[in-house]
User: What shape does this take?
Amino acid sequence: MSQALLNLRELSCGYSEHRVVQHLNLHLNAGDIGCLLGPSGCGKTTTLRAIAGFEPVLAGEIQLADQVISKAGYTLAPEKRRIGMVFQDYALFPHLSVAENIAFGIRKQANCERITGELLEMVKLSHLGKRYPHELSGGQQQRVALARALAPEPQLLLLDEPFSNLDGELRRRLSHEVRDILKARGTSAILVTHDQEEAFAVSDQVGVFKEGKLEQWDTPFNLYHEPLTPFVASFIGQGYFIRGQMLSPDTVQTELGLIRGNRAYTWPVGSAVDVLLRPDDIIYDPESTQKALIVGKTFLGAATLYRLQLPTGSQLEAIFPSHADHQPGQQVGIRVEADHLVAFAVPGSIATQASLGESGVRRYSSDS
Assistant: This one.
């Protein structure tokens, strides 16, 4: 079993009258890459700065490798934390060469040349060691910043929106490269981003933030398929809700028919619920009697993303093969094809009035 390297317990940060982060609990295992994900102003960067030692802690504590490094009234100096940092603007020294930038933080000067050479090779910049930052592209500068942060062999690496200054294709390619480099070295890391694709490409665990609170800390797969709150369900992926009524623990009646899934809920029969549907749950079926109005479309190449409106006014998104070309204003046949059921109680319904726990869900196990 992996050992937790980083622990945040009941962490609160901010100002005397305004707590940006509240009651935050998470842990990161040694060798894992975590991500703090959420909209602007949700507290993810404040959390990263608190881990780095740049932000005081109002309550709770931060523990790194069994050592408390921050708590109310105490902050271990950033330079004593064995934490590396990759900034959004790279923060390279303009008067130093690539090799000199990387070597800057190496403590053991006897091994400096060897370590610098290994890192240059790892980030694929061996041939550019004598160049200066202004002579490099954005992607190359980011690799130098990563190598420099890894040079002192930190226990934990923090990356603050590291790809935000790069264009789309380069961001995707570099995010995969960074994950490969961190995994090859066994380096634990925390990434901050608002880009879901980036978070999923790099991370083993992702924490979704909303207004200073951690909604869910989980694997990308579980965030997408088993969101614990309506916010996570709608923020991750492209999720839409339609209203339904519980017929049994694993079956809901909706305007798209019966939806049955691989989990059971403890809410009473008759409870009003909102059912989460993803674009890949909606199948184009010209023979179906269930029709939807196309109100928008986005061509994706191999497929087309359609925004659909149901007779009740509810909207969904669906991905159809690109050869099934339809125009806004047309009616199309659809059906639901989902092997899961993700539902949330409607406020004021029977389900929320009954004291049945936070999510009301009981997952099936292999013994069920």
Observations:
- Residues 4-225 form a domain with the Rossmann fold fold (CATH 3.40.50.300).
- The first helix runs from residue 44 to 52.
- The radius of gyration is 24 Å.
- The chain has two domains: 4-225, 240-363.
